[in-house]
Amino acid sequence: MTLIPLLYGLGWLIMQPTVLFLPGLPLQWRGLLGTLCSALLFLVLLPGWVRARWISQHPWRSLGITGADVGNTLVKPLLLGLAGAGALLLLISVITISGHWGYWLGDLNAEKQLNAILLCLVVGLLEELLFRGWLWGELKLLIGARLALPIQALIFSLVHTRFNIGIWPMLGLLSGLFLLGLVLAIRRRLDHGSLWGCVGLHGGLVGGWFALQSGLIQFSPQSPLWLTGPGDNPLGGVVGILAMASLLVYQLTALAKAARPITGARRASSKGATP
Fold first, then answer.
1. 108 and 72: one domain?
2. Which domain holds residue 160?
């Protein structure tokens, strides 16, 4: 569990010499470069960590990145995840426009389109590798699979929540993010260990929301928090929370249905066995 804090600190230390060569570099760019360096270190060291800690000969497969069937491991889960993100953002857009809390612009230039795509793929991949890949796997080793699932969702929500927006908006944001953490973990189970469905859903929400705010829709300053969410995050609004809760129920139902044939086969086998 100490890997990420160490890499984060190391990334910042490595990037400090840039201050000497680029003294006028804005502070936010220094932070971005430090984070980028930490992310690169994470990607380089992660396979070796998984081999040693998880006793895995195929670390990227254990993390859900690769598999024997590219279509079922990558393409299908990724598209399903993107579709889920698109459905939630479409719902928010329809309510916004029909309620006269905004109007459609449809003006997204090439630079913003590229930013949205990069946010979708890069943020989605890196954060899912971190939370539903590495963190969830580490927690399973430390506290067991049953507790690991809600704990990873709790850590995910705490890391992403803003604590300077008031108690009730903060609780709404925590709730929505916690539900998203659960949804993403169950999504990986439904995808038989593939991480790409999580990447599609998570990245699609980040990139899609950026695209909506950057030129697709002009939101009114009077847009209600129950719709657009506190801290500029729709997951903390009533619509986002209800959508995540509904999706979680749907996924749990699908997971239970998927397990029934196996359970039935086991029962049939046990009945036919000799006492």
1. yes
2. 62-259
